[in-house]
Amino acid sequence: MIKVGQVFEQHEILLTGGNGFLGKVVLGLLLDRFPGLKHLHVLLRPQRDLSAQERFAREILDSPALAPVIEKRGRNAVREKITVWSGDIGKPLCGLESESLEQLTGRVGLILNCAGKVDFFPPVDDSFRSNVDGINYVAEVAKRIRAKMLHVSTCYVCGEGDGLIEETDPILGFYPRRMNPQEGTFSHTTEIQTCRKLVRQVYESVGSNGDAPGGARSREITERLSDLGRKRAERWGWVNTYTYAKSLGEQVLAAQENLDWAIVRPAIIESALRFPFPGWIEGGRTSAPLVLMALGGLKDWPVKKDAPLEVVPVDLVASAILAVGALLLEGNHRPVYQLGTADVNPLWMEPLVKLLDRESHQQRKRRGKVRFLTPEEARARRIRLQNRIARTRALLGRMQGALEALGLDGEKTFSRWSSALRVRELQAAFREQTLDQYLPFVLHNRYIFESENIRMAYSMISADERALIPWDPEKINWTDYWTHNQIPGIEKWVQPDVVKDWSFKI
Ligand SMILES: NC(=O)c1ccc[n+]([C@@H]2O[C@H](COP(=O)([O-])OP(=O)(O)OC[C@H]3O[C@@H](n4cnc5c(N)ncnc54)[C@H](OP(=O)(O)O)[C@@H]3O)[C@@H](O)[C@H]2O)c1
Predict the structure, then answer these.
(1) N- or C-end of the chain: fewer Cβ atoms within 10 A?
(2) Where are the beta strands (DSSP E) in 362-429?
(3) If you measure from the C-alpha of residue 263 to the centroid of ligand 1, how many angstroms do you get, rounded to a whole number?
(4) What fold, for 4-267+310-343+450-475?
């Protein structure tokens, strides 16, 4: 049996991504549940007008995720447990000075790498910076300071898939269209080099050497680099640039020598079940846009009725990360821990969509019937929508012309309708783009992530400590969770103004 609290009393921990959605809950939970923790180091990148220290105070200490621990122990006590380091995982040695590295050497036993770029289709070099190079540089620091490394990846590195996704597949050489693990046609180093060469060609084509990726870039270059990521991902069977880069990042880690590491792969991370309090969620990169569209009255759902949505509450993920971190420190770990829920407690799409629809009825008093669309129906619906908008625009144009032929001010008469139509057009385009991002997860593929290793991990932890950092997806009542945590949580913590007025009449 492993005593997690005792392990954390003996080792200092360095956390990256501590100001992100997941990172804040990891940080809050660690300090809340293990007050005897030896010390925590947090690496944050400065922004143009904010230092790492300022970001720490503003984005972490003032976050609701830390409210429980600050209330219990006081802001000063929490502050004293933490040292903030200014750094960037996309830079060699994470941008840390050699003096800083010396100070960390022999003190930090474990790096928890929660940093990552979660956008699905960013310019590919931006994704590589945090999700591929970043892994290399964090590993470099881990070796230099003699620490172990826990890296947060994603279950969706599997790419296209249907059915049970095992967590024991070898990492190196993996690509989604691989027929079997013996097939040796994929080398992550070759792919990384090829992709970099293509990125360079894009920059060179406009006379730039691309020295400052992420800096000011023309719209055309941004689009070409996003498109490049999409194409490289599609070529091998990944569903977006994010999962392509995350898989390459895993392979970079798996190829390291002289480093103890473990990979934790959560499914889609959603609102808190219990910690910091039920329903807390942050950012729009979760299912929030889908939920807000549902509440806005979406009736046609391009989803597989009989597929599970692999969702996991953020505090369960944070708990599992701490449990695996302790096992890794004790040398009792496995390489990969998938954190899904469907292999013990699936949340099926059909009842979920109906629940969201009921909620939308209650809020908006709208009537109508939900329809589940196949990929073909979804395509046909989109074409109908585009045609209807085009026909309405043509009709407005003809009516305006007719008025003007009579010497009347057609433009003035129809300007309000034209701008209303333009708004509808933009809303529809935005909705289609949003839906597109989710199609691989809800329509084109069907995933159940094997999550046996995390259950094994918890069998090595005492009942008392399991209660402190629970991993118990089998106990979640999904109807209760969506009704009392997820939907109100998204409405309270995520809802952007722009989404409030979404209408789905056209
Ligand atoms: N959200 C999900 O549903 C989900 C599911 C599975 C796995 N994951 C993984 O979980 C991790 C955390 O995701 P999240 O949802 O918490 O995302 P998030 O809220 O966007 O947080 C990402 C964090 O990474 C930091 N970061 C990115 N690039 C960095 C760099 N070059 N140097 C230093 N810090 C950097 C960001 O800092 P800045 O504020 O400076 O940008 C931010 O703190 C990611 O690795 C993601 O792939 C997320």
Answers:
(1) N
(2) 371-372
(3) 15
(4) Rossmann fold (3.40.50)
Q: Name the residue of 15, 19, 22 whose CB sits within 8 Å of the most ligand 1 atoms, as the mutation to test its pocket.
A: 22
DSSP annotation of 313: E
Atom 18 of ligand 1, residue of closest alpha carbon: 20
| pTM of the model as a whole | 0.92
Cβ(340) – ligand 1 distance below 6 Å: no
Give the start-to-end residue ranges of the domains of the chain.
Answer: 4-267+310-343+450-475, 287-308+346-445+478-506
Residue 306 makes CB contacts below 8 A (sequence gap 6+) with: 348, 349, 350, 446
Q: Which two tokens stand for residue 160?
A: 């296209």
The whole-angstrom separation of Cα 173 and Cα 153 is 17
pLDDT tens per residue, range 234-284: 999 999 999 999 999 999 999 999 999 999 999 999 999 999 999 999 976
Percentage of residues in the chain with pLDDT exceeding 90? 71
Dist. CA 115–CA 200, nearest whole Å: 25
Q: What is the pLDDT of residue 300?
A: 87
- Any ligand 1 atom below 6 A from CB of 154: yes
**The one-letter amino acid at 101:** L
